[in-house]
Amino acid sequence: MNVEIVGGPWSGSPRRWIQSAGDEDMSLELVASNDDRALAIRDHLLLLVRRDGVLKVQRDQVRTITFEQSPWVVHHWTPFNDLQPGEASSPGYRHAVERQRPALDLPYGLEVWHSKMVLRVLWSDDGRCQVESFVRGPWEDLALAL
Asked: Is the pTM of the predicted complex or chain greater than 0.70?
């Protein structure tokens, strides 16, 4: 019996196990991915963070919004957006900031901490996403209940 593992948690693709039962004409391919569960948690917590989080203005290329409710800490970051009241608003400043923006590949992110970091997801406007870290556990159902 031969078993081949293709992909992996850091390759951006689901892990596939291809198993041959010794017969050249018969093979079984099982596909397993944690991405669907991780993205469901991201989508749920993103609404919570946007509704109840606190905006933390960055002076570089990103803005972060943080939701804290012990033992939870959820950070969501986005590319630099329009200036908020209280920030410098001269046209020269705005243009200088625009020129400093790098071309970000996956500019949006969500990081979930439940006593330790349990989830980190990056994504872009065009639908591409990458689950960088996903620690399975009881925290998943608790997060979806928030």
From this structure: no
CA angle centred on 12, ends 30 and 10, rounded to 5°? 95
Where do we find the tokens 């609404």? Answer: 47
Query: What are the two backbone dihedrals, phi and then psi, of residue 23, each rounded to the nearest 5 degrees?
Result: -105, 125
- The whole-angstrom separation of Cα 73 and Cα 45 is 11
The per-residue pLDDT for range 6-34, each reduced to its tens digit, is 443 433 444 444 444 444 554 444 444 67
Distance CA 104, CA 126 (A): 12
Nearest to 142 by CA among 86, 70, 52: 70
β-partners of residue 122 are: 109, 130
The Cα 71–Cα 64 span in angstroms is 19
